[in-house]
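I'll show one example:
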Amino acid sequence: MPSRKSFVSGRTAIVFGVIITAVLLLSLPMREYFRQSADTSYANAEAAKLQASVDRLQEQVNRWNSEEYIREQARERLNYVMPNEQAYVVLGSEQAKSEPEQRAERESSKGAWFEELWGSVQEADTTGLGQRPDAEFPHIVR
């Protein structure tokens, strides 16, 4: 009987084995390289964001070092006027009220804590349409 030749010779099997071993040995370092590359790019993006934030804050500090900006802020926030200037306040305007006055007004419009609590319970008792839940089912008697 004639001997049958194998499709894969011994040398070919050894070459394939070496290639597979090389791929397996290089896969872990390559995976780590790509992971570290992604981490580096993420860290660079974070550093760029932080640098932009530092630049913005430094710009704000530089503005506060300017006398003109401080005067502008004093006029706007504290309603200060320079000597020999005339200040006018429009009554009834929400913008004319200072922040403490607006806060005091909001708090005075609130009722007692138990009234707010009971109001929230009543509000929760209604559905989104302002109806009681049993209004949909009038045949249910409570």
In short: The chain has two domains: 11-81, 90-132. The radius of gyration is 38 Å.
